[in-house]
Structure formats: C-alpha cells, structure tokens
UniProtKB/TrEMBL annotation:
This is Helix-turn-helix domain-containing protein. Pfam families: HTH_17. InterPro entries: HTH_17 (IPR041657). Residues 72-117 form the Helix-turn-helix domain. It comes from the Bacteria.
Amino acid sequence: MSSNIKISRICDFCGNAFLAKTTVTRFCSKNCNSRFYKKKIRDKKLLKSLEETHEKLKSPKSMDLGSNKPILNIVETCQLIGVSRTTLWRLINKDRIKTTLIGRRVVIARSDIYEFIKLKP
C-alpha cells in the first residue's frame, strides 16, 4: 500500500520549499542531504579540534627544567639556556659547551651547562 501524502516542507539545508512524500523528510534532494551530512561531519571535526586546542592551552606542556635528569638532549638544552639550536651548535663547535655522543645522539651533561653559565661574563 502506498500513500499519496504530499506535505509542504522547507529543506533543512538550503531553505527552499518542497513537497515531501513522507512525514520525516528533511531535505529537498539527495544533493542537499549529502551536503548537510558532509557539513555535519566537518563541523564535528572542527569542534573536536577546537576542544583539543583549548585543552592544550589550559594545561600547557611545560618542560620540567628543574628535574634531576643528569643529561639533556639538544632541544632540552636550548630551552634550559634560552637560546636557539643554531646558537647552541655554535657554542658546541667553539668548545664552550662539552658534549658526549651516545651512538649518534649528542647529549650534554647538566653540570657542563651550569659550568658554561657560570663562566659566561
């Protein structure tokens, strides 16, 4: 049994008036339905991204520079001293800061960093 219902509706996506054949029809065409769905998914992703950003801003990842790690990598050393990587490598090449190789990795002893800071005029 088919019904001959014709209901005048307004599309939830484009806002145009159309005749619906069922009581639950929300969109005037498949095209409007697809666009609405894609917009809904895009908005969810955007909202999730904004929430993640707000969470990161609320609790910033702070580098614990006062920790008891005896050795630091290049990035941690840059943050501790407050210089760029280029400046740090320049200091290393001038032998103002002593480094140690562990495999291919360059590490710097915390005591060497403090010694460099004390010698700095």
